[in-house]
Design a protein that fits this description.
alpha/beta; eight-stranded mixed beta sheet; 12 helices
């Protein structure tokens, strides 16, 4: 049964803004909402790919296998390379260290994501901070692009630059980019209003700061819903995924397998 899955890219406006935390927990939230929904997560952080640590899995393969064997990549090959987490989410990690693997080219990404779209309802791509040709190809192919920022001047300045670059270079239309503010603290020196004015773009979502729960989840290799199912941050992820994909929650549509994209 071939699907026509949704590709969601998560890209950071700078290092350390939480792209992996958001990618992992968005993928787990999507998988948890519907038990028969298939979800995969793909790690594009070539050197610092940490998804296996976040999910406490020990993958046998990473996408070095894909770049080596791109001609062979089909559903069966990919299923053998992917690692499956206990939540049901399938993971394609990055090599995580420099080992002479051929980096994925835009053509390889196009082929890989084409196959993954047919196999999964949702593919979440942790793009890290990369803006090379391969990352830009990934963003172009994505149905949703989440640009992650935090309330700090350097980060907001970067967010503004990235938005302008993506739009001016013709990679993405303005309305396809959803800016997500992570680690929000209500008494921050910079207000949300200032942030919106500074970046010249609406905020799609604000994720509350919960450093304790997030670090505890990362350090134990567990997801946020496992560690603190009733926490504000977990509720925020649930509401964000429901807002992004409202059609999946609608009863009559779901019954017929239609998705309101």
């Amino acid at each position: 049964h071939q699907k026509s899955g949704t590709l969601v890219s998560v890209v950071g406006s700078k290092g350390g803004v939480g792209t992996t935390t958001i990618s992992v927990n968005l993928a787990l939230t999507l998988a948890e909402a519907e038990k028969d929904r298939s979800v995969a997560i793909l790690d594009m952080n070539t050197l610092f790919g940490e998804i296996p640590l976040f999910l406490e899995i020990n993958p046998k393969y990473h996408w070095g296998e894909i770049t080596k064997n791109i001609e062979r990549v089909d559903d069966i090959f990919l299923m053998n390379v992917l690692s499956k987490h206990s939540s049901g989410v399938h993971v394609l990690p990055s090599p995580g260290y420099l080992n002479g693997h051929q980096a994925p080219t835009p053509d390889i990404m196009e082929r890989l994501l084409g196959v993954m779209k047919r196999m999964f309802d949702y593919v979440v791509i942790d793009c890290g901070q990369s803006t090379d040709e391969t990352a830009l190809k990934t963003l172009q192919m994505s149905d949703e692009v989440l640009l992650i920022s935090v309330l700090s001047l350097p980060c907001l300045a970067n967010t503004s630059k990235l938005l302008r670059s993506f739009i001016d270079l013709g990679y993405l239309r303005k309305e396809r980019i959803k800016v997500v503010l992570n680690r929000y603290i209500s008494n921050s020196e910079i207000s949300v209003k200032d942030a919106i004015k500074g970046i010249g773009h609406d905020l799609f979502w604000i994720i509350p700061n919960d450093y304790g729960t997030t670090m505890s989840a990362i350090n134990s290799g567990k997801s946020l819903p496992e560690i603190a199912p009733k926490s504000k941050i977990v509720k925020s992820f649930k509401q964000m995924s429901e807002t992004m994909f409202p059609g999946d929650q609608a009863e009559p549509k779901k019954k017929w397998g239609f998705f309101n994209r």
